[in-house]
Write a structure and sequence with these properties.
This protein has six helices and five strands, in the order αβαβαβαββαα. With 172 residues, the protein is of the alpha+beta class. A five-stranded antiparallel beta sheet has the order 2-3-1-4-5. Helix 1 packs across helix 3. The protein is elongated and about 100 Å long. It starts with a helix and ends with a helix.
């Protein structure tokens, strides 16, 4: 491969890294063509972009990116695939689901919510991470809870008051 071709790939990877808030590094080697195709289809359906890259090109792209991902350099050995996503926990769920039927992909590392996660043992932690929209929904639900309680208490109080007035009206 020519140096200019490598630079084009590095620039493209750097742009993807900078534009994506979350990315996962995984090992999908030892998957046959059919399984790899199934994984790619699953990634496409979940809006995850799966890219297989050379480690040296990925390292150069990481070095020239805006992300502070120096810790990920240690896992750039063997076969590496990058999963780019907008939701931090989607690739972790995807990997966990896919591994119910296969022994791959193996998580090497992840950059999620400006944090680095190293190793395959972090899958459950990454699955539990909530997306920005999920956190906003939780906050809205927490804010609505006291208001709903007050409204229901006022409504029950109005029903009791109505019942008392109706009883008093019937006695006269």
């Amino acid at each position: 491969m020519k140096r200019s071709d490598k630079q084009i790939i590095i620039d493209s990877l750097t742009e993807q890294i900078n534009s994506s808030n979350h990315f996962y590094l995984a090992d999908i080697s030892e998957l046959n063509a059919s399984d790899t195709s199934d994984l790619r289809r699953l990634c496409f359906n979940q809006e995850v972009k799966l890219v297989v890259v050379k480690n040296t090109l990925l390292r150069k792209a990481l070095e020239s990116s805006d992300k502070q991902a120096d810790e990920l350099y240690d896992v750039l050995k063997g076969n590496t695939s990058v999963m780019f996503t907008e939701n931090g926990n989607v690739p972790a769920k995807l990997i966990k689901e896919f591994r119910k039927r296969h022994d791959r992909p193996i998580l090497k590392g992840a950059y999620v919510e400006e944090s680095i996660y190293m190793g395959d043992n972090q899958i459950d932690t990454l699955v539990a991470i909530k997306s920005k929209n999920e956190l906003i929904a939780d906050v809205v639900a927490l804010l609505q809870s006291p208001m709903k309680t007050v409204v229901s208490q006022l409504q029950s109080g109005a029903n009791i008051l109505h019942g008392v007035l109706q009883t008093l009206g019937e006695k006269e």
